[in-house]
Amino acid sequence: MLMCDICNSEASSAADGAIVPARDFRQNVRNGSFDPFRLGLVVVNNLKSNEENHALWRQVVEANEGDWFLCAECNRAYQAASASRKPQVAAVDRPTPAGSAAVLPQTLDTIRRIQPRPALPPVPADWKPGLLAGMFGPPKPWGDTQQAAELIHQGRIAEGRELLWRIAAHSKELDARLHLCLESLRPPDDDRIVPNHVFPMVPREQRDSVTAIRAFFLRNGNQLGESFLAAADKPLPTAFSAHCFLLASLAVSDFWMQTQILHPRKREVDSVLITGVIKAFTQILARRFDEAWLLFGEAAAAPESTMEMYQRQLKVELEPPELRRLMSTVQLTARVGQGLVLAELGYTQLSRPHFHALAAEMEGRNAEACRLLS
């Protein structure tokens, strides 16, 4: 049960209201667009006037860093009030995501508070391999790849990896083997799950995406570019292969961006620039999802900061049409990253509509990947 942060009425689920990012809410209170006391949304039984209560409440709004949950009635009033004051825009507008799904909260804590998690998949008491494990063949799996992924989502990494290992030993299922490839690049270390052991388990023509991700961490730029282009040239057989492809697209995002800027100027890419999106990608692989979420959110909200860094580091001045196009690309890439974080944590009720909206804005293999994940 959720409680509205304005009127304290109860809502059975997040779908019965809306989450408003703290920054947007604060801005609309500051500029006078939204005043719940004037709108009659709040009834206060004390000796202070509405003006005094409003002044105290504004102090709470200024101090609060968490996103706001509004019930349906308060959200309608908030949207109507905030829409009455249109923001001023600069000469070069920041691109606004077209067709995007519901506004995502600024922190994952808000999502954790309102999104129910699936029940933890069952794990047998004797799941851990003993001294005689393997003497009569690999132990049989007790569940499927989806259950293994959910175990990992909920922090039961050892159990999830063991289940993936058993599935891969007893079948040729692609998703289980792709999961093992990603796990070999993530903490904690596992002597059985290392790239040289698990990557050959995936057919060569189906491992280009994970090879590109591995090449990023090996700092092998040539292999990164070649593997991603090869992946983009092939259809995606499963939703998780789409997940891996989009992760690879984050890994190659800086190289692509520099190419778009430098190639028309007859210059070559000669170094890697660590953008917020690139940092966030590495945090996903490190399972530091809160940091990744904040970085993706910053890139999506202020793509001009990323482009200022590119212009400064590469010593170029972009023309306004070129700048707008590349800022839009930064936003799209960051939003893809947000969707991947949600999927990595198992919040499919949020990730699926998010990718559905992105699919309408993307092209080619990226659009196909988003559709598969929606």
List the helices and strands and how they pair.
Blueprint lengths: L1 E2 L6 E2 L5 E4 L1 H9 L19 H14 L4 E4 H12 L24 H7 L30 H9 L3 H14 L3 H10 L11 H4 L9 H10 L3 H12 L6 H13 L1 H10 L13 H10 L3 H13 L1 H12 L5 H25 L3 H12 L4 H10 L1
Descriptive labels:
single chain; 374 residues; mainly alpha; two-stranded antiparallel sheet; 4 strands; 55% helix; 3% strand
Overview of the structural elements:
- This protein is mainly α and 374 residues long.
- The chain folds into three domains: 2-88, no CATH class; 143-201; 239-373, no CATH class.
- It contains 18 helices and four strands.
- The strands form two sheets. Strands 1-2 form a two-stranded antiparallel sheet. A two-stranded antiparallel sheet has the order 3-4.
- The longest helix is centred in the last third of the chain and has 25 residues, at 320-344.
Class by alpha and beta content? mainly alpha
Average of per-residue pLDDT values: 87
Multimeric state of these chains? single chain
General shape: flat
Radius of gyration: 24 Å
Q: How are the strands of the largest sheet arranged?
A: 1-2
Q: Characterize the biggest β-sheet.
A: 2 strands, antiparallel
H/E element sequence: EEEHHEHHHHHHHHHHHHHHHH
Query: How big a fraction of the residues is strand?
Result: under 5%
Number of helices: 18
Q: Which residue ranges are poorly predicted, with pLDDT under 50 across at least 5 consecutive positions?
A: 86-101
Number of domain units: 3
- Fraction of residues in helix: 55-70%
Gap between N and C termini, in Å? 27 Å
Number of DSSP strands? 4
